[in-house]
Design goal:
Elements: E1 8-14, H1 17-26, E2 29-35, E3 48-54, E4 69-74, E5 80-85, E6 91-95
C-alpha cells in the first residue's frame, strides 16, 4: 500500500458494472467486493459495490464532482457517517 495515503476509507456506493469500472479507471477507488444486502437493510440496493476509496481528506472525494467531502451526520448506534460535498451538495454514506 502506498505510504502517502493518509486516510484510506471504505464506503458503499450504488453502481452498475460500467460505473464501477469508471471509478477504478479514475484511480479514486479500488474495487473490493459486492455488498450483500440483508433482509433488514433497506438503505442500499441489491447491486451495490463496496469500494476502497483513496481520498484527499478523511471523508474522501465526491463521486459526482471529485471535490472533498465533509462530515455531515454520525448515525447513532451505527458505523455509518453521512457525508456531504462542499461543492455540489451531494450526500453519501461513509462506512467505517
Amino acid at each position: 500500500m502506498n505510504g502517502n495515503i493518509e486516510y484510506p476509507i471504505i464506503r458503499i456506493i450504488e453502481a452498475d458494472d460500467n460505473e464501477a469500472n469508471q471509478l477504478l479507471e479514475s484511480g479514486l477507488c479500488q474495487f473490493i467486493d459486492t455488498y450483500k444486502k440483508s433482509t433488514h437493510d433497506y438503505e442500499f440496493p441489491q447491486d451495490t459495490y463496496m469500494v476502497y476509496c483513496i481520498g484527499q481528506n478523511k471523508y474522501g472525494v465526491c463521486s459526482e464532482c471529485n471535490e472533498n467531502m465533509v462530515k455531515y451526520v454520525k448515525e447513532k448506534w451505527s458505523n455509518k457517517i453521512r457525508r456531504k460535498c462542499k461543492a455540489c451538495g451531494a450526500e453519501e454514506y461513509l462506512i467505517y
